[in-house]
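Hi W., the adenosine-5'-diphosphate complex you wanted:
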Amino acid sequence: MKLLEMNHVKKSFDGLEVIKDISLSVDEGEIVSVIGPSGSGKSTLLRCATMLETMDSGELIYLGKKAAWSDGTGKMMYAPKNELKKIRENYGLVFQNFNLFPHFSVMKNITDAPISVQKRSREEAYRLGRELLKKMGLEDKADAYPCQLSGGQCQRVAIARALALNPKILFFDEPTSALDPELTGEVLKVIKSLADLHIAMVIVTHEMAFAREISDRVIFMANGVIIEEGTPENVFASDNERTKSFLGRYKNL
Amino acid sequence: MSLGLMVSQLAGGMFVSIQIFLVTLIFSLPLGMIVAFGRMSKKPLLQGLVKAYISIMRGTPLMLQLMVVYFGPYYLFKIKITNSYRLWAALIGFVINYAAYFAEIYRGGIQSMPVGQYEAAKMLGYGKARTFFKIILPQVIKRILPSVTNEVITLVKDTSLAFTISVLEMFAIAKALASSQTSLLPFAAAGIFYYLFNLIVAVGMDHVEKSLSYYQ
Ligand SMILES: Nc1ncnc2c1ncn2[C@@H]1O[C@H](COP(=O)(O)OP(=O)(O)O)[C@@H](O)[C@H]1O
Ligand SMILES: [Mg+2]
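Structure:
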């Protein structure tokens, strides 16, 4: 069974078609990178997959359970509230600008949802929190507030916060685009280290070397459609004119 | 009249002023939140009504509103106005007036919150209520504190308007004493009272602001 399935997803904003009939699926543990020029609809695709945005038509399925689908008349249907809640537990999202809670300490950012939403015990949540902070190389920052951290540290806290809920799939929307160049490395390194957790990851990124190294599959998007997808080797050596011209802008390859 | 008697009369007025101040805050601060939600409602009728209410409360003198609350029941419904209703009228007038001001402050604060905070909360499984009370409201309180402090300081001085419907608060008593004793001393005492009251308010609010300055 596929972990995530999106079938014939369409989305427009005030008449502007941003996602034009996109279908994709993700297996458990699979790492997928989404690349493409800005404005091509990558963020919107993630926002539809995470239900931060409603779709105009299509189907969204997690582990065989339908979260959203269009009925015969073209109206979108959503699973009942309690089922959506369960479906949402399958995934997490790491934002470009972190969206940490500024009034919570680092530890509270990570442990509050496990404790208050998932009703896990405080001890367990804190133990997991400390473990995650260690993995992120931030064990000394548990009591700091987000405003006292660098962008790279904030993003690593945001990743820990998402991981604390035990998602099966983690979406990343340009996780290093808001960072100073010298800080992107530490975040990419942390994301790479997640590969052995066997969590599926869908990563929108402009870091081509990173995408090529980490991905099981690369999706190249432009103008709201998937132009090409395949193994990093195939996509990065593609004959497709649009893929070639896009990748040509990243000279370091 | 002895100085002692004068002081005890002024103290009585002071008590009423403080009473108006506290009751107004206790009721208008939460009521303002409800009004703010009405103002931000997507239902056009509710939103329109609340908008009109806020606009009237902010667009007409508080003194006039107090009179309407006080005399309104008689002129509209021929209900006999009793003496004990005076203070009630003042309290009701102050609460509905300040709720409108606080509502606009809350609304500004809530609408200034970045949408990313809501989205992050949603991704973590927080429901609507938990998102509001745990994530949004604490940050809104920090943001609006300076504006709230301004309103609270204005309220201290505004309590003196209750004298227009003959509530015997600090200012009314000072005025009566000043004319019966042909002395400016009661006014000086009243001035010092309002000033000290506000000094305490300012120190208190400063303390609250500092206690929230552990984050930006
Ligand atoms: N909420 C929105 N309202 C209107 N237009 C939007 C909205 N979100 C995205 N768009 C538009 O959709 C297009 C795709 O945006 P986006 O998905 O952010 O692309 P990408 O992430 O690939 O840069 C852009 O033209 C953008 O202006
Ligand atoms: Mg984007």
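The mean pLDDT of chain A is 94.

W.
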